[in-house]
Structures are given as C-alpha cells and as structure tokens.
Automatic annotation (TrEMBL), chain B:
SUPFAM superfamilies: Soluble quinoprotein glucose dehydrogenase
Keywords annotated in UniProt: Signal
Domain Pyrroloquinoline quinone-dependent pyranose dehydrogenase beta-propeller: 45-428
Residues in the signal sequence: 1-27
Protein name: Sorbosone dehydrogenase
Organism taxonomic ancestry: Bacteria, Pseudomonadati, Bacteroidota, Cytophagia, Cytophagales
Length: 154, 431
C-alpha cells in the first residue's frame, strides 16, 4: 500500500519533470529501502516541494503546462525572466509584476500580485521547479539567494 | 533536518494525492500537445445542413470584423501585420475564397463597425472613422478622422469594442483595468475599494457622436456602469437597444479559498448578457451573477459569503452562461439564409477560458441563444465547436483557434474570426 502511494506520489508530482521510467527507478529504490527519504537528492525534494507550491499558487494563471495564457499571463517556458538572472526572478515572486513589457515579443496584460507571503524555502523550491520544468533547464535557486533578495527589499 | 524532510515528504505525499493536476489531466495535456503538433485543420462541428469553409487564413490576431453589402470583409488585428492593423478582403473571382487582401492603419485594436457611409475602427485609446465610397471601400486609408481620443489604456481589459445605433451615436465599452477593484489587484487579502472610484472613467459604456472630431471622455454620455469588461457587443434592431456580454470576475477560489472550491470557482460567476438602457448599473465590482443560484450575489471583497444576495439597484442579466468562457463576439442574426429559429436570435463567440485551471478549460465555441420578442427565450446551444482542435483544452495556449469576432454576410452567412492563427470561417446553410 505504502509503495503504491509512493509511486502515485512520484507520478503525480514529478510527471512533467521525470519520465515514467524514473518513476520505476524510484519504485526500485523504494523497494531497496522503504521510507528512506534521505536517498532522495535535495534537488529532487526541492522539485517535488516546488511543484506543490506551484500548484497552489501559480498554476491558475500560468497553467499546468507552464504555457501561461496568450495575451494575459506570461508563459514560463524558455523565457529570459525564468532562465535569466535569478535575482530578478526572485524579485518578481516577492514583489509581483505590473510591467506589461514584451516577453518573447508578446505583451501580457494581467498583473501578477506579490507572493511575499511564501517562505524563503517555498520560493526557492518553486523557482527551482519552474527553472527545471516546461522544457527549462537551469540552476536551482537556494534559500540563501531568496533570503538575500528579501533583505534587499527591506 | 532528516526528520524535518521526512515529515515534509509525508506532507507532500498527502497533498500530492489531493492536489492537481491529476494524472488524467496530465495525460490529456500530452494528448493536446500531439493534437497541437498535427498539421490537420480541426473540422468545425456545426448542426446538420450547415457548412463551414475557411475563406482566409494567416491574417494575424483577427479580432472583430464587419462585412459590406457586396461581401467584402474588414478585419481588425490586435497587432498590425506589415504595418496594417485593418485588413480588407475580397473574393474577386467568386470561388468562395478571399483572394484580394490589403491592409491599412498602423495601429492594432479590436473594435470595428460599418454604418452611414463610414468604417469605424478603434485602438485601445482612440476611435477613428474612414469615409467610404459607393462600394463601401475606404477612400483614403491614410487619413481617418479621429472622433474620440484619450480613452484609458492600462494594459488590462484595454481593447475597445464599438457599436453604432440608428441615431448617429457610437457606443464604446471601456473595461476596468482590474479584477474586482481591490486596493491591490488580484492580491489575496487586499480589500475592495469602497467606493470603486475608477468607475467614473472605466467599467462602463460611453456614448459619443459619430460625427464630432476629437471627443474626450467628458464629451461623451456615461451610458451604463458597473461592467467589469465587455468585448462582445451588438445593437438589437428589434428592441432598438444595446446588448453586451460581460467578462465576469476571476479567481474566487484563489482569493477566497475558504469560501469557494476549485470546482465552484471554475464555473462562477456567470458570463452575463445585459440589455443596457441609459443609466443602467450592472453591479461590478460589488456584486456578481450566480447562474446556479440564479441571483445576484455580493462579491466577497465587499462582505459577501457566496450566498448573500446583491442589491436590487443593480440590473439582472438578460441571460447567463457558465463562468470564464470569455464572450468576445455578439451578433444578432437578421438574415434569412438560416432556418426560422435563428432569426433575431444571438450568436456568441466564446473565446475560451483560462481561469478554470486546475479544472479543464471550456468555451472555444460559438453559441446560439434563441430570442423571442426581444428577450432570450429557451436554452442556449453550442452552434459551432472544435475551434481548439481538441476534445478538452487544459491550457489555453494549446488551442489551435479561438473564436473572437462575428459578422453576418449580405447572403445571411455567419463569419467567425479567430485570433490565434487569423483564420476566417464562413458558416452557411443549405437544405
């Protein structure tokens, strides 16, 4: 039962990031050592936690596939905002965005509210998830980086 | 740390099982991706004896359109293509395809109207008119007359739709650059402004004269208020009155998770059709219309709890449709080509939702609303479907086409403009 739950957890949480093969691999790992969370790398944990933060706070506007909404909410796939300078990206989450500047030649009209109610850990996780989902591949965001940006604001 | 992470893992496990998207939804998205990559044009589903043809394609972000007495088409583009924001199309050889294409006006926009020897077009801040010759061709595409200027454009809900009446007036819908008039837009916990001061210049309909240059907001008549955003609008010749489709507010669940479930938030509030008489107030942002309870409900930013009934000072909709479908086109059908039941009824182009996620999206179709004696009568029905090219749209960006503008041709055919690929459809009836 536990193993079944775990696999559906991995499938549900990580499917857009990892293939079903890695589900099988995780399942094997689980078989070797049940309930051994220590074997999951920090990045994997951050990705999984980040996906949950994403589902609860970002998905409604940016959509499950990170595609955004044409003309309204920007996509998160292959954009300079997501893949570029981490400080700016962290700033968007903390302060929101009401710039209406073109992103990949399109203008998006909805306001993004500030998400400064998220913890440093949640922001690090969700940005690590976003930077490594939706065909993105970029370095993880650390709690220290988020903390530094939050401190700047004060 | 280890313990902490283990308990985090347990929390994740529980939330993951309750969270979305489901595996089924993810599988659907994968299917959508495949459909999106396929080159085959979706077959538009229409009732028996109706036929859909593509008369033009690749126009750009085609918004509203109008058809002349001889069957030429003017289409507005959200963004100019090759320096032209309005496209003129003509079928010169009568084969049913628009083979002549010219564009003019270096500004994008949505609104367009034809009447009294002029073509009217809008940007997000201005209204222009072009004098037409006897064939309803623009005489000088480089010299439009500016009749209205200085309208609000704050990015959100900025497109300006227009409608003409029979008495020399033009009506422009000015959307509010806001979801629910909160102090901080779309921010959880931010209160609704009381009163919602922006309503003096947005969130309503203004009436201007068609023949006066450079009118500004205060020159116009503040015709109706309390409307969040309106894109689909038309003049009903039977009732001699203005009808509009409101884009209802978003994010009931995001902003008030304790009051609304994902499922409720996906279908609420209604996308409402209003008949607007001078002085009407439709109640935004203080109330919204709940099509399930069939009542006006006080908005949660203004003390509502999802049940508390809204004030009777606000008008009731003429008809109500499920939430977030984004009604971008409204057309009263006055032709004689379609069967009797369609005459004087309304076609509505629903551009398709985004604010239903994590639930599947909906809309992306053209609806028919029967009318009797100038009032909606009987249930609405989906008239033309499958513009998106997939059974279920999970993410709006995957839709192949999205219906936006509607117009009636001189032969009674219905034209539908798509703002994804700029496809122009003609729907005709023959027994």
């Amino acid at each position: 039962m536990n193993r079944v739950l775990r696999c559906s957890f991995v499938a549900g949480v990580m499917v857009s990031v990892f293939s079903f093969q890695s589900c099988a691999q995780t399942k094997n790992a689980t078989q070797k050592s049940t309930s051994d969370a220590a074997k999951v790398s920090p990045t994997e944990v951050s990705m999984a936690a980040g996906k949950l933060v994403y589902n609860q706070n970002c998905l409604v506007c940016h959509q499950a596939d990170g595609g955004g909404v044409p003309h309204l909410n920007p996509p998160l796939s292959q954009t300079d905002y997501v893949l570029g300078e981490k400080a700016r990206l962290i700033g968007v989450v903390l302060n929101g965005l009401d710039a209406h500047e073109p992103i990949n030649d399109e203008v998006y009209s909805n306001v993004m509210p500030a998400h400064n109610f998220l913890t440093d850990q949640q922001i690090a996780d969700v940005l690590t998830f976003v930077r490594n989902s939706f065909e993105n591949k970029a370095s993880a965001v650390s709690v220290a980086e988020v903390k530094a940006e939050r401190a700047k604001k004060k | 740390m280890f313990k902490k992470r283990t308990s985090l893992y347990a929390t994740l496990l529980i939330s993951a099982l309750a969270s979305v998207p489901t595996n089924q939804a993810v599988a659907q998205m994968a299917k959508d991706k495949i459909a999106d990559n396929a080159v085959a044009e979706p077959v538009i589903k229409v009732p028996a004896n109706f036929k859909t043809t593509i008369v033009a394609d690749g126009l750009g972000k085609a918004r509203h359109l109008t058809v002349t007495d001889r069957g030429d088409v003017y289409v507005r583009l959200a963004k100019p293509v090759g320096g032209g924001g309005t496209v003129f199309l003509r079928d010169t050889d009568g084969d049913g395809k628009m083979d002549e294409q010219k564009s003019f006006g270096d500004f994008g926009g949505t609104g367009i109207a034809l009447g009294d020897g002029y073509l009217y077009t809008t940007s997000s801040t201005e209204i222009f008119r072009y004098k037409l010759n006897g064939n309803q061709e623009v005489i000088d595409p480089n010299k439009p007359e500016r009749i209205v200027t200085g309208l609000t454009d704050k990015g959100t809900h900025a497109s300006k739709s227009v409608v003409l009446d029979k008495s020399g007036n033009i009506y422009v819908g000015i959307g509010a650059p806001s979801n629910a008039c909160q102090v901080k837009d779309r921010t959880k916990g931010s209160p609704g402004m009381m009163p919602c001061a922006m309503l003096d210049s947005v969130g309503g309909i203004w009436q201007f004269k068609t023949n006066q240059p450079d009118q500004i907001l205060k020159d116009g008549v503040h015709y109706a208020t309390g409307i969040r955003n309106m894109v689909g609008m038309d003049w009903n010749g039977q009732t001699n009155s203005l009808f509009i489709m409101q884009h209802g507010r978003d994010q009931l669940n995001t902003l008030f998770p304790d009051m609304y479930t994902d499922q409720q938030s996906a279908v609420l509030p209604a996308e409402a059709m209003y008949e607007l008489k001078k002085g009407a107030n439709a109640g935004w942002p203080y109330t919204y219309y709940d099509q399930i309870q069939k009542k006006k409900i006080v908005a949660p930013e203004y003390g509502g709890d999802g049940k508390k009934e809204g004030s009777s000072e606000y008008i009731d909709p003429a008809a109500a449709y499920p939430g977030h479908l984004a009604p971008n086109g409204l057309l009263f059908y006055t032709g004689s080509q379609f069967p009797e039941k369609y005459r004087n009824g309304a076609f509505i182009a629903f551009h398709g939702s985004w604010n239903r996620a994590p639930e599947p999206q909906a809309g992306y179709f053209v609806v028919f609303q029967p009318f009797k004696n100038g009032k909606p009568s009987g249930d609405w029905e989906v008239f033309a479907d499958n513009f998106a090219g997939m059974e279920t749209v999970m993410s709006p960006g995957s839709a192949m086409h999205r219906p936006c503008g509607l117009a009636q041709g001189p032969d009674g055919s219905l034209y539908v403009a798509d703002d994804v690929k700029g496809t122009l459809y003609k729907i005709s009836y023959s027994k």
